[in-house]
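chain below, 428 aa
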Amino acid sequence: MTTEFPVVTPLEYTCPGHRQSISRAVHLSRMATFYPACRDCVHRDDTHGLARTTIVRLARTQDRVTRNTLFEDEGVRGVHRNELTRRDADRLVSALAWLCWQDRPPGIGGDTRTRSSPVIVVGHDTRPAARDLLAGVLASLVRSGCRALEIGSVSDACFRFAVDHLQADAGVRVTGAGRPASWIGLDAVAGRGRPVSRGAGLDAWETAADSGHPRPTRQSGHRRSFQVTEAYEATLRRHLLASRPLAICLSAPAGTQSDSLTRLLSPLPWNLVHSAARTGTRQQTVAELTRDTGSDLGITWDHDGDLATFCDETGATLDPLQLFVLLATRILSDHPDRAVVLAASCPDHITTTVRRLGGRPRTVSGSSRASTWQAIADHDAVLGLDENNSTWFGAHTPTQDPLLTVSHLLQTLDRHERPLSELLARNS
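prediction:
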């Protein structure tokens, strides 16, 4: 008697988006390392053999909403290596370079082959992952025939200043701002430092990245470095004229913002005290130190250095709307009858206050950074307040710069003998 056993065909594992099949061992190893393609895999529940803690983490991950794109409202963000790699950065920036080439004017006699190559400014933040993606960004720009100007580790405000200062066609900054430390991404700006946001260039970038495009030129580009920090800081010095001593407490991660503020204040009779984080948050530490030392102002920067919070001499945190009114009081006294751009969500009392101070309120349509930038430019506004209650300035080009906020705030304190808490109470 012969016993026949059914033939069991082994499962074939193929990662979504891949053509070549893999073994189950490779499947499990990729699941264990949270390989991005595993989120859409039909065998994602086949986890037998993995550690229990890994299976639990995978279950939590699968319960989250799957992201169909790395493009967000203001740029690209993803977990470093798991979602966003150097190769991804190469592909995404290649699409951006192709769009820049399409905007170039024709060459001699209308021949597109003789067009001059686009100038692209490239910067990055202080995250360790930024340098990894930076290599992909630069390689992509050179291969696309662009002239890449590398400005190193800079703040978002300094980066946008550089694009305008160098009259570049666009700029790319490698940054994970607004996300946890394990994330990284890309922010892009157009000419004059205008943010690329949803409805203002970001959609075209996403489409180009997804649909593919031909190589814009057979000629390779080139890259060179440019030191922009000195020129950027020079634009801030004109706002810092000291007539009396002030004491400022600062808690900030090591980086360009902290270094710039130190250099800007060093020749002035304003004492800058750097505070190392003790127990609690940076903001709590600065508030306590400002109050205990009798300082005039406390400043805290986030870990990316692009957002700042302030406290008065009592350690009380400044409300962003109070800060805006204080700055508007001073700036509109020097520039009366100028437009002030306000988000549609702005409280009515802010609009009334701007009118009382001699400004002309203008409501911005849209909530993106690009819409705020464009409204300030269109109305030649001296100030702006976006939907996040962040203050913008109508400098040579519209900007939202914490260092410029610090400069105007210190100048306001220098002009008055009253402490900051009294100045805020007077304007409330």
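The first strand starts at residue 76 and ends at 79. The longest helix spans residues 86-102.
thats it, cya
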